[in-house]
Amino acid sequence: MKLLSRTVSAGLLATAISASLHANAMNENLLVSVDVDTKKNGDVIATLNITNQGKDNQKILSWYTDLDEEHIFKITRDGKEVDFFGPHYKRHAPTEEDFIKLKSGETLSKSFELSGLYDLSKPGNYEISYDVESFDLFGRNDKLRMESRMMQHQSSVTSSVAELSSNAVNLWLEGVPLSKGNIQAAAKPGAAADCTDGTCFTGRCSNSEKNSILSALDAADQITNNSVAYLNSHSANNPSTRYNTWFGSATSSRYATVKANFNAINDAIDNQDLTFDCSCNQSYFAYVYPNQPYKIYLCRAFWNANELGTDSRAGTIVHELSHFNVVAGTDDIVYGQSGAKSLAISNPSQAIQNADSHEYFAENTPYQN
User: Fold this and answer.
1) Which first-to-last residue range defines the signal peptide (predicted)?
2) What confidence tens digit (pLDDT) does each residue in 331-344 have?
């Protein structure tokens, strides 16, 4: 449903592009537009505008209006999606304070520099658009109504993940050098890292924190081993309630993907040098840069979690390891058990790509055979 696509081929210094608004089918009250401009220093600036054209107030999850929080732009070069170098977080399911409220007629406008977080380093024809999806995108009440409808009409449900997207802006770029220090092929522990038996620590981890991490890593190994054994003892023809709860109906292809993902997570725990950083002071559980294996940044919610159980320290490690491109390359389509269960019903193909779905399968609480 892209309403406008304009092409610019003026080299690296492409002129600013304005495009018409786009109404998402799942929330016609929100109109989204993206403008793109390139600066003389090579920066590529995208300006996002979200307008409430409805009569009532509208909500949107704030994470999806911040490039430092989420992968909110879809960018392709010559038809192939480029790499995103930003962080992937594990969060709690959103609460009311996580939503931005737009009054009738109000516009949210924000600008983002793209070349620091997207690979724009090669010449080519680029297409840039705002493109996000989440069960909770427009508010918890919308999600609960969708879940109620799914329980009543499961056979007719194909997808209930809310989506919001914009026009597509097309332009030619000669290539913009990668400009942020966090864009690396891998995250090396570095000289300041303190390592114990292949596990390294950065960010001034205390002795207590190190002990907690090592214990949680052992627990993560246990629940991952259990997951691998469970998947090996079942099949797409006999997936069981545990599989169906978190990944939905099984096909040979989807089951093989989940099985391969857990084998890769298990290999990362058993055979790779992992680095844990204790410097994060955000409210989240943890985050990683998917192109920088195998470094995990632990945040406040991690230290407040139990070692095992729902949203545990062990599960957080499984969640974050699954994000690495060299492991499973998962995304954060939904957060929380309720959202993960709904995703399994409505869209199993997305459930097998969702990091929390892998975590909850591994944690297996409440216990299921």
Assistant:
1) 1-25
2) 998 899 998 999 99
